[in-house]
Write a structure and sequence with these properties.
About 30% of the residues lie in helices and about 10% in strands. It is an alpha/beta fold. The radius of gyration is 19 Å and the shape is globular. Bound molecules: iron/sulfur cluster (2 copies).
Length: about 350
């Protein structure tokens, strides 16, 4: 063991993956989204109840994503239930995020918007989204949110297609009025597994792409590669579209900590052994530079499990911990686990 992570009694913030419905058809959608709602997704009233319970348990921030949250029936009412009691962030691709929708989001009290771009131009973005016209709608969404007074982050996942365009995406973000750009890793989740060989970059190529990124003055940059490789499990909480507690959306294919509609999240957080283990910072190896900047140890547990099959393994996206792991090779499918004793999630939910 290297060191421990900070310890919290309860999660201060949570990610709500409120639907796996989306009008787009992105070729690397982690949620494997469909145009129609999937069976078993929580409905509006269940989300409102959950949010009330989470606020009562001390959660003060909700990061709402999907799927496309704006496609969720009753989304505005769900958001309306959260804004009086939590800081809210909305991750969207911006389809249908018109001036009027942005105004309504502002009136409800949305704290921040995060809009995904899969390229700096329509050809690159629309190809990845599988939908003509989606680039223009994402651009309009940023403009409309900014005009409504909502601060915006532009997000982009680093792939073979976005790497050559990183600086252009940053310039676009700045020109549209965004305040920050977040560059995210490509994870072997959902449909991304089907296009891994087409989109995944080697460790060196990722490092070179980040080094080449030129951000316009005034645009903030968020990225989680060395020396910013954090193990944010220590403060992570998430509920998927079906009400299952999964800790983090990047763990969506690997864990199932229980039904958050039946058991208070707070109790799941405190009692599930695997969840506790992931938060502990109990890892085989840490990068001292990243630990110093982030105050946490070992980097991402999802990436560690995906590539090495061990929860305690080094994060292969960290330059100092990669040790020759070929990130362009699709890792095997890993079992979904419920607790540290290796109980299979299928046994619990079947
Ligand atoms: S916009 Fe997001 S949720 Fe929709 S298909 Fe693309 S990746 Fe999936
Ligand atoms: S799985 Fe990775 S991204 Fe998710 S909370 Fe843990 S360290 Fe952070």
């Amino acid at each position: 063991m290297i060191a421990s992570n900070p310890v919290l009694e309860s999660p201060p913030k949570i990610t709500l993956g409120i639907t796996e419905t989306c009008p787009l058809r992105c070729n690397y959608c982690y949620a494997d989204c469909a145009h129609a709602p999937k069976q078993g997704e929580l409905h509006e009233a269940q989300w409102v109840d959950l949010i009330k319970g989470l606020a009562d348990q001390g959660v003060i921030q909700a990061y709402i994503e999907g799927g496309e949250p704006l496609a969720k029936p009753g989304f505005m009412n769900i958001l309306r239930s959260a804004t009086p009691v939590m800081m809210t962030l909305l991750r969207t691709h911006g389809i249908g995020l018109t001036h009027d929708v942005a105004r309504e989001l502002a009136d409800i009290g949305l704290g921040r918007g995060l809009v995904d771009f899969m390229g700096a131009d329509a050809a690159t973005h629309d190809y990845a989204a599988g939908t003509a016209g989606s680039f223009e709608q994402s651009c309009a969404a940023v403009r409309n949110l900014v005009a409504a007074g909502i601060p915006v982050d532009v997000l982009t996942i680093l792939t073979t297609r976005t790497a050559p365009q990183l600086s252009a995406i940053a310039k676009l973000a700045s020109d549209l009025g965004a305040s920050r750009i977040g560059v995210l890793r490509l994870y072997p989740l959902g449909r991304a597994r089907h296009v891994w060989s087409e989109l995944a970059l080697s460790m060196n190529a990722q490092t070179a792409a980040l080094a080449s990124l030129q951000c316009p003055s005034g645009l903030g940059l968020m990225q989680s590669w060395h020396p910013n490789d954090h193990n944010c499990c220590w403060q992570a909480a998430a509920i998927n579209a079906f009400g299952r507690a999964i800790g983090c959306m990047y763990l969506r294919d690997y864990v199932d900590f229980g039904d958050a509609t039946e058991t208070p999240y707070y109790d799941i957080y405190r009692t599930n052994p695997l969840y506790q283990e992931l938060r502990s910072g109990n890892v085989e190896e840490s990068c001292s530079s990243c630990s110093a900047t982030q105050g946490s140890h070992g980097g991402c547990r999802s990436a560690a499990y995906a590539f090495h099959g061990r929860w305690t393994a080094p994060d292969p996206f960290d330059l100092g911990l990669n040790r020759g792991t070929d990130l362009t090779q699709l890792p095997p499918v890993r079992p979904r686990v419920s607790n540290q004793e290796g109980e299979n999630a299928h046994d619990l939910v079947a």
